[in-house]
Amino acid sequence: MRLTTFSDYSIRVIMYLGIQHGKLVKISDIANAYNISENHLTKVVHHLAQRSYIETVRGKGGGLRLVRDPKSINIGEMIRDSEGDAGFLPCLNTEGTCCIQSACKLMGILREAQIALYAVLDKYTLADLLISGAPLANIFLKSEESASSLNK
To answer: Which of 3, 30, 104, 107 has a 20 to 30 A CA-CA distance from 22?
Structure first.
C-alpha cells in the first residue's frame, strides 16, 4: 500500500504540532519546515481540524495547535481518517467490476494484508513518534532559522 500525499502531510502536521507542545504555529512554519506547499497543507489542516486533532485560531496572532494528547492519537485511526475506506484494490470494497472477482483468490490475500497493515499501525500513537523528540525538534528549529534568514 502506498499512502496518499494527504496522509503523509497529515502525519507531518501532527508530528510538527506535537513537538511544539501546544504553541500556536502558522501553516507557513510547517510548510517551510518540510519544504512543501502551503496550499496542500491548508486542505490537510482543515481536515485535521474537522476531525478534532487540531484547533485553528483565526486572526492576528492566530495559528494552529494540537488539541489532543499525543497518546490519544492512534496512527492507524488517523490513516483511516485520511485515506477513507479505500482498499488496496477497488474489489476489496465490493465496488470493483472485475470479471474474475467471483473466483479470485488474490482478493482474500490482499484483504488479509490490509488487515495486518492496520493492525501494526493501530499499535502506535503520536506519542510513539515523538519519543526522544529532541532530534526532530532540532531539525524543525534549523528549518525555522533558515526560513527567517531568507526573510531578512
So the answer is: 3
